[in-house]
Write a structure and sequence with these properties.
The protein has helices at about 5-40, 65-75, 105-115, 170-185, 200-210, 230-235, 240-245, 260, 265-270, 290, 305-310, 340-345, 360-370, 370-385, 390-410, and strands at about 55, 80-85, 100-105, 120-125, 140-145, 165-170, 190-195, 220, 250, 280, 295-300, 315-320, 350. It is of the alpha/beta class. The strands form two sheets. It has a seven-stranded parallel beta sheet.
Length: about 425
């Protein structure tokens, strides 16, 4: 009789096997290190010299965050091992002499690599270190987290950044929430340092160099995210119909994931509201041009809201971010209002079921009331530190941290 193993059990056994192989590899490597140390009279040290700097990116979309940092590190003659899970990550063809990029798409191999990595300082946007499959390596001296956008750092799944050694935050509200979580969980305080948002810095440079839009008809950009709580799922084509009734030029830019996960819904909407002189559907890879020529953005809880308001200094119309906090770090701080709830009313108007029919009035108010332009500047100061210099500051931090832990290790010998 053949032994049957169901797919779930098989997957679990395979994960265990990978873990055992990784442990065996680690044991052999450590034995090799000890032999080298004995032969060198205790002078050989490979724990920090092999990979001084490592960046781990679980998706190609985070290259926009890491590219300015890689460029700055390359200018300073530093070498970086860039590990990505995306086979089409731009990092793989970036051309920076000091960046050695490699893709490990298969998850078990990826985490085995990370869990037994030999490095000095590792930088990542990925939460969940030491919580899921990704474990701290005994041979990585320091783990640094950088948020991937302006906004709440507590909207990671629970314990998302607990086991990092430091966080490069972009606003004091993030630092405050991190300290509150540490206190509630009796965790040692991690190092917090002002970082910034490198990709917003890059967007601002592109905007500064761009030609002015010039005279044009008032243009509204509808750019929702995807999923059951997103605008199209909640309001369907009604939102497009009402925007067309304003008489303004309308650009619809669905989230790229919608074309995969919500294909049928999008095809129906595009057939019902085909392109015309007043309406265009946009699928540009880079969203700079469409943001640049739009006067106002209508969205939901998409991160593009802050890109639009903070970089382009234009108001937004947003749907209420009603999050189910049950699985997020924010649940632990549920008695405190999230920063985003105070930020959004300052950069635009809320769109509700009741206000839908008055969307033209909302648009006109946002574009003419000075309180929103003033609010945008205030929100920018709170959430986007080190404007224009974040990549230099982050590179300096990583280099100084490496030198610091190297000196500490040398002093302990």
């Amino acid at each position: 009789m053949l032994l049957y193993i169901d797919p779930g059990t098989g997957s679990m056994l395979f994960t265990v096997l990978i873990g055992l192989l990784g442990a065996a590899f680690y044991a052999v490597r450590m034995a090799f290190i000890k032999i080298r140390q004995k032969l060198s009279g205790g002078k050989a040290d490979v724990s920090l010299k092999k990979e001084p700097f490592v960046i781990f990116s679980d998706d190609k979309r985070y290259w926009k965050i890491f590219e300015p940092i890689c460029r700055e590190m390359d200018k300073r003659g530093k070498e970086i091992l860039y590990i990505t899970a995306s086979p089409d990550d731009p990092a793989l063809k970036c051309g920076y002499k000091g960046v050695k990029a490699e893709c490990i798409e298969e998850k078990n191999k990826l985490f085995t690599k990370l869990n037994y990595l030999n490095a000095g300082v590792l930088l990542s946007t990925t939460p969940g270190l030491e919580v899921y499959q990704w474990k701290r390596s005994k041979d990585v001296m320091y783990y640094v987290h950088i948020p991937h956008a302006a906004g709440e750092i507590t909207l990671y799944r629970m314990f998302g950044i607990d086991y990092y050694d430091s966080v490069l935050y972009s606003g004091d509200f993030q630092a405050k929430d991190i300290r509150a979580l540490e206190k509630l969980r009796n965790l040692p305080e991690k190092e917090l340092a002002e970082g910034g948002i490198p990709y917003l810095d890059e967007m601002a440079k592109v905007l500064e160099a761009a030609e002015p839009v010039g005279e044009h008809e008032r243009t509204v950009l509808l750019a929702p995210t995807w999923g059951p709580s997103a605008i199209f799922s909640v309001y369907g084509g009604k939102i497009i119909e009402l925007l067309l009734k304003t008489g303004y030029h309308v650009i619809v830019r669905p989230h790229p994931q919608s074309f995969t996960s919500e294909k049928d819904m999008l095809e129906k909407l595009m057939a019902e509201y085909p392109e015309s002189e007043q309406l265009e559907w946009n699928r540009d890879t880079d969203n700079f041009n469409v943001l640049h020529r739009s006067d106002i953005l209508v969205s939901d809880f998409s991160g593009v809201i802050f890109d639009f308001a903070l970089v382009h200094n234009k108001p937004v119309i947003y749907t209420s971010p009603n999050f189910d906090l049950g699985v997020y770090d924010a649940w632990w701080l549920k008695d405190n209002d999230m920063w985003v709830y105070s930020a959004l009313p300052r950069i635009g108007c809320e769109l509700t079921e009741d206000s839908m029919s008055n969307i033209k009035e909302l648009i006109d108010r946002c574009l003419t009331d000075e309180q929103y332009s003033e609010g945008i500047q205030a929100v920018k100061k709170e959430s986007w530190y080190n404007i224009g210099t974040s990549s230099e500051i982050i590179a300096e931090y990583l280099i100084n941290k490496y030198e610091e832990i190297s000196a500490e290790k040398e002093g302990k010998k």
